[in-house]
Amino acid sequence: MKRIFLIVLMVSAVISCSKGGSASAGRPGSKTKGELISTSKRSSFLVERPYGMVAIPAGSYVMGLADQDFTNAPEKANLKTVTVSSFFMDETEITNAEYRLFINYVRDSIARTLLAEAAGESTEEGTSIGNFAYASNTEEDTKDAYQEFIESQGGRNGYDDYGAFKKLDWSVPLQWKTSEYPDAQYAEVLESMYLPKAERINNERILDSRKLLYAYNWEDIESAVKDKSRSTKYLKKESIAIYPDTTVWIKDFNYAYNEPLYDGYFWHSAYKNYPVVGVTWDQARAFCNYRSRRKSDYNESLKKKKQKPMAFRLPTEVEWEYAARGGLANSTYPWGGPYLQDDRGCYLANFKPKRGNYIEDEKKGTYMYTAPVKQFKKNGFGLYDMAGNVSEWTESPYNNSTYQFVSTLNPNLSNQAYRELRKSVRGGSWKDVGYLLMTGTRDYERKDSARSYIGFRTVQDIPEGSTAKYKKKTN
Fold it and tell me: Residue 324 burial by CB count (10 A; 0-12/13-18/19+): exposed, middle or buried?
């Protein structure tokens, strides 16, 4: 009898514990009576719109140049109806001010790394170098079991010597003014980032742009799928010099006086809202990775973790053309009509209106070079400067016959994107005639080339199962 009483007592204790614990503590499916019922309370996912972007709804359109081809160029392909998924797109080209955030991040990361290396394992408070030691040196009490395991591996089992948690301490502000350097050791570290005195012109102390390298990895998924394998073999490691080539203002125009733009276009505050130029295709892709990492790191820093954001990237050529049309069928230009001026005689984009006349009339809205973003009307999707101002890089490789053999569903030559030297460039620029501004006109440039008339904007995928707030068409 006593034995039976003990068994009953143990069973009742187990039942009471399972009631107070999680669903996994009891039988699988105990809360849903064994039925396949999702316990998620969220009925749908409302995707977060990134700042400065607009949502482009999914849809179909006829891609290609539907108008008369005055040049009879081979780039004109047969018209083809295709379908494009929804995505976010920057409402303007990436500006100098936005790209400078990228430059400053890389600059600060390098400086902090040099200071942390100089500090070594020092955790002594009150010293200038010790304050910049790796954050992992001063966070012993906050390490969890996984962090301790990773750091215990050292250089074995695929982990590097610093481990996954050897991170920089961004809480300590950097001092860039020489008058505010805390001591000589700090000055020695930061001085290594500037041009050596032997290379300075007029003894001007400026950062050595050759040292501004951005390192990141990306996976060649297409090759991995083709080979039916997934390994580090398909991991591509990039180290990109990300400073724009400011000499393009001289190189692109050998017989023109563009020295003022060479000196100040990228850094002068007067040009902060102008589109960045002198950026190669690889640099544009590095910027996309930086923007993705910036948002992902922020979400990870929150106490209540958010959904991992979709990566930022360059648009495919087909996505770009679809967005440029603004939801209008067979539109010659992003604003729809076949004319380059409105009913008051004002130009609708920044381009070269006449031969040798880059600025026909200031009242008509023309500019000698690039224009600040948002100076012309946006198209039906809410995008500015999809024609003129600067041409824009796309993710897609360039091929004369692309439109003939690509898929009709989200067309792209993704498996050739990084192998092909020629990349599709769309939209026309401030130096081009009206023909290159047509939504169906194609052009290309080598991916390692930087030009004074090529910039870029980024896109972000919208998951098919989510909802987004789309702007109403303005046209």
Answer: buried
pLDDT truncated to tens, each residue of the chain (475 aa)?
445 444 444 444 444 444 444 444 457 667 777 788 777 666 567 788 999 999 999 999 998 887 666 666 655 567 889 999 999 999 999 999 999 999 999 999 999 999 988 887 555 555 678 888 887 655 555 567 766 676 665 543 333 443 445 678 888 899 999 898 988 889 999 999 999 988 888 888 999 999 999 999 988 888 888 888 888 888 888 899 999 999 999 999 988 999 999 999 999 999 999 999 999 999 999 999 999 999 998 888 887 777 788 999 999 999 999 999 999 988 899 998 888 888 888 889 999 887 767 676 655 556 889 999 999 999 999 999 999 999 999 999 998 877 777 888 988 876 556 678 999 999 999 999 888 999 989 899 999 999 999 999 999 999 887 777 776 654 4
The pair of structure tokens assigned to 467 is: 């909802």
Nearest to 213 by CA among 96, 109, 114: 109
HSE value, Cβ hemisphere, 13 Å, CA-based, for 2: 0
CATH class of 64-93+254-475: alpha beta
In sequence order, the β-bridge partners of residue 54 are: 89
Residue 28's contacts (CB-CB under 8 Å, 6 or more residues apart) are none
96 in Cβ contact with 272 (< 8 Å): yes
Distance CA 318, CA 330 (A): 14
- Decide the pairing of beta strands 235-241 and 213-219: antiparallel
Cα–Cα nearest to 467, from 68, 49, 2, 127: 49
Contacts of 110 (CB under 8 A, 6+ apart): 193, 211, 212, 213
Angle at 276 between CA 111 and CA 380, to 5 degrees: 130
Look up the pTM and report it.
Answer: 0.86
DSSP code of 169?
-
Give, in order, the Cα–Cα distances in Å from 393 to each of 98, 186, 241, 327, 389: 17, 40, 18, 21, 13
Which of 161-164's residues contact partners 24+ apart within 8 Å by CB, and which partners?
Answer: 162/134, 163/136
Q: Tell me how far CA of residue 418 lies from CA of 220, 236, 283, 297, 408, in angstroms.
A: 9, 11, 13, 26, 22
Of the chain, the end-to-end C-alpha distance in Å amounts to 87
E-strand spans in 372-427?
Answer: 391-397, 422-426
